Amino acid sequence: MLSASVPVATLQPETGLTLGALAKAKGLPVDLLGKFGCSDTKRRGVSAVRIEYRNVAGDVAGVRFRSALTGPNRFQWSTGSKTSLYPLDRLAEIRQRGWVLVVEGESDVWTGSHHDVPVIGIPGKTVWRDEWATLLEGIQLVVWQEPEAGDLTARIAKTRPDLVVIECPPYKDLSEAHLANADVPALVANLREQARPWSEIVAERLDARRTELRTLAGPVLDHHDPLELITDAIRGQGYGGDLTPPLIVYLAATSRLLAMRTGSMPLHLLLVGTSSSGKTYTVDSVLRLMPPEAQHTISAGSPRALIYSDANLAHVVLVFGEADSLPSDEDNPAASAIRNLLQDHQLHYDVVVRNPDTGEFETRHIRKAGPTVMLTTSTRKLRDHQMDTRVFSMEIPEHIDKIRAALRVQARLQREPAPEPDPALLAFQSHLQVLAPWDVDVPYLDTLAELIGRSVSASRVLRDFGRITALIKSIAVLRHTRRERNGQGWVVATLEDYGTALSLVGDMYSASVTGASDGVRRVVLAVAALGRGCNQQAVTAYLGPETNKGSVSRWVKEAIGKGWLVKKLNRIVTRSNWEIQSLTPRRCRRSRPLRRRSCGLHRIPTEMMPVVVMIYISVRSPPPRSSRIPRLVL
User: Fold this and answer.
1) Where are the domains of the chain?
2) Strand residues in 452-562 grouped as ranges (E)
3) pTM, whole model, 2 decimals?
4) Parallel, antiparallel, or unpaired for β 46-54 and 60-66?
5) Could you report the per-residue pLDDT of 203-239, keeping only the tens digit for each?
6) Strand 99-104 relative to strand 140-144: parallel, antiparallel, unpaired?
7) Is the peptide bond before 303 cis (omega within 30 degrees of 0)?
8) Who contacts 84 (Cβ-Cβ below 8 Å, separation ≥6)?
């Protein structure tokens, strides 16, 4: 054993470091370090210790240089080296022992070997590769958790959840225990007996976190309707005009917390509008009410940036600042991976890489668990048709009343800056997240599905039905403290949740199914009213000063693309009377009365009937009559 008075040399990086000085500082024999492949060398003219990283076969796979005892730049890797566990050439000996102490850095490995303790080293507190778990299969992992190194333990646990952890050991690391004259083998044996399973630690932390968040979110959880507080908060952040768009965005973000089953999807959202219409501001006003762990934003970057990032995507809002940042080609592998994430609730991407140890090519499987909700903005529909069918398009209104309201709010904010979001609302979303996934029972959903299934003209009807289901469930989750539970412990949605969903997205679903937004309807009906053909300027004048010229241009293009308008000699005319009528929401036209028993409505209580039927009519598209559409004339 060494005396506690052994001086520890502190060398500056420009002075360099020798093998003898390093061994003396660590209180270890020089020849022990030599057995691990350590030697003196020169690094850019400065003395350094060369540390060999050998593979399982004993060949040198990487080299690390140490040029100082302290300082942030004391380590450097040689060109072409790949990080690995240390020392892999002694893995067979470790496997015979049946367990290994996982430490950080080479010094603790040398110290453990000096005291006959099986040790494996990780070259840094932020470094862990998933394939290392495969190398250590069949070996019990005992992690020596250094101060402020809890993230490393969590990374290892993702691939080895069966590990046990030595929490708050009496010494920072093995090297410090050795220099303090501690009986290292006895110390490790005692700490190993006291080590706790990672699963037990996580459960304890979650319980404590739930209790803490329940207290912080108390004012929201105890309120009779949290949606009222959310509405007030959005308004208080400076959002002017109709609050329907940000409320829908908030509910879409909350749908990330729902339990997902085969065929179900959260409410992915695309906000469409002209430039400066408030799309980004709408999203930002909602994200300010979300905790950091609930969101991941990509403003710009490589199409594969999300695939190779270490971001957690489970129950997270994935925000693409602009839809142009999305991989868009139909045959783009990155776009396919994101589409799978949105629909299958898991990002899976396979890429061929060269194995640095064998030199052979092999397939690397990248998997990231969801569910994940995507929010993005654009001035037009998504170019990727497959991606577009997975999102719910919401048009940002551009009426003059909204602009005036926004201006009034902006003027007020110049005098009185918007307050910071209420911490209780942030804690509310964090509280919901730690309890995720949420199972919600939506009554009479089978009957609603039967009703919607009678209309087969819309190819998107299945996904539209899933979206309205996700919306109702999200509303019920927000109000869960005022909702009953069924025998399985699921939150049970009520008539009030149906009604809230209908009031928010009834018009949007009509637009989603027919393909005609409110703006497109107004444009086509304006053309019909003007008669004898007209130009875009006349349509804009007819719709009044509250309508933006750029919006009219976009609506006209959509109407022409859908076949409801045709362009002739720089004039715009309607196609036929039927196309104009098909733009009118079905619930506004006379139709044959529904028979309760033939449609399955006899199973729905009378008080639920109006809401269920209205939702049914909102998502049901007009009957197919494509044979009556004349050919497009340009």
Assistant:
1) 1-82, 83-216, 220-437
2) 491-492
3) 0.72
4) antiparallel
5) 999 999 999 999 999 999 999 999 999 999 988 877 7
6) parallel
7) no
8) 53, 55, 61, 62, 123, 132
Looking up tokens 């973000």 gives 253
CA distance 625 to 628: 6
The per-residue DSSP string of 313-340 comes to -TTEEEEESSGGGS---TT-HHHHHHHH
The four Cα atoms 96, 102, 107, 108 give a dihedral, to 10 degrees, of -80
* Whether CATH 3.40.1360.10 fits 83-216: yes
The yes or no reply on domain 220-437 and CATH 3.30.70.60 is no
Contact (CB, 8 A) for 439 and 491 = yes
For residue 94, report the phi and psi dihedrals to the nearest 5 degrees.
-65, -40
The answer as to CATH 3.30.420 being correct for domain 1-82 is no
Whether residue 145 contacts residue 169, with contact meaning beta carbons closer than 8 Å, is answered with: yes
| 3-state class (DSSP) for residue 226 | helix
What is the predicted pLDDT for the residue at 168?
85
Structure-token pair, residue 176: 């410090």
- The owner of tokens 């929201």 is 220
- Using the CB atoms, write b or e for 489-527: b if 16+ within 10 Å: ebbebbeebbbbbbebbbbbbbbbbbbbbbbbbbbbbbb
Angle at the Cα of 477 from the Cα atoms of 473 and 479, rounded to 5 degrees: 120
